[in-house]
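note to self: dont lose this again. the chain is below, predicted strucutre after it. 341 aa total, dont forget to put it in the shared folder this time
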Amino acid sequence: MPNTLVSAVLAVLAARARAQLSTVTATLTVDPTVSVVVVTIPAATTLPLAVVTSAPPVTTTSAVVTTVPVATTTSQILSTQAVTSTAVARITAAAPITTTAASTAVVVTSQAATAGTTLFSENFENLNGQLTSNNWQITTGTGAQASLVTSGGNSFMRLSVPSGANAFLVPNSFAPPDNSFFGRLSVTVNGYPTTPDFAHWIHVQFTGTGNPTMVRPVGGQFIPASATGGAPAGNYWGVGADGGATGDWTNWKTTAPAANAVATCVEFQVNAADNSIQVWLNGVLKPELSVNQTYHGGNAVDFILPTANTIQIGWWLFQSNGNTYQVDIDNIELATQRIGC
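---
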C-alpha cells in the first residue's frame, strides 16, 4: 500500500437491470494510516450485486463492509468475500441497494492496508553455520537433538526427537499486544505417528499468566479408522489445549489431514477478543479447525486464553512408541497481522 492517500477509478458492474448490464463509476480511496478502503458510489445507484475492480490493484487479505446508507432498512445486510492479494472485491447485498446521498460511502476495512508489527522472525539463513542466536533458545528433552541443516541453498532447523520427548525453539521474549497475534511456520515431518491410537503431537504451544492453560494452536492426533466416521485412519490437524478449565482436548477434523514428508505452511491467528484461534494450511483457511470461547473440544466451560509470555515451536509427541521423529522447521514468524505463506 502507498504511504499517502491514493485514489483509483473503479468499474462497478451491477447485476442485470432491464435486460442490460449497467455500469457506474465510483472512486476508491485508500488510507494506510487507518487501514480503511472507502468506495464512493454516485447517488441513485441500484446495486443488487456489485463487482468492484480497481486500477491500479489494491492488495488486501480481507475485506469487510462495515456501513452503507441505503434506501430501506431491508437492504442493510451486506456480506463480502475475502480479497486475497488481487484487484477484485465482491460486495453482495442481501437485497437491492439504492444509494440516497450525493456521495454515499461503502467503508471496507483492509487488514493489509498497513504493515503489521513483526514480533519474532527466524528463517535460519544468517546463523553462520550454528544453530544459536541471541534471540532464542533451544530446549530438548531426553535423547532429542536439534541441528542446522543447509540443503539446496536453504537453511532450516532439523529436530530428531524420540517419542515421548520434545524439542523446541523458544523466543527469549514474547508479549503480543492485546494478547493477540498471527503465526506462521513451515514444517516437514518424515512420518507422523501411527501408534498408539490417538497419539497426540504438537508443533506450537504457548503459555502465560492469568490461568494455567497450555494453548496448542498447531498440533494434531493419529485417529484410528474406528473413530473417524468413515474417513481413513490417519493424522489430522487440530487446535488443542491442556492444563486449564477446559481440560485436555484436540479439535481434530478429518478434512485436515497431515501429510508425511511434505513441507506444510501452517498459519494461525490467536484473538483474545473472543478467545479464538484460526488455522490456515498452505494458505487456505480451515474454518472447521477454528475454536473460540464457547466452541472447542474440551469441558463445557469457557475457553479463556492466558496472557501469553512464552511460546514454543518445534515437536512433541506425548506418547512413547519406540520411534524417533525427524522434524524440519523453517520460516518462523509471529506478527500482529497475517503473514501469508
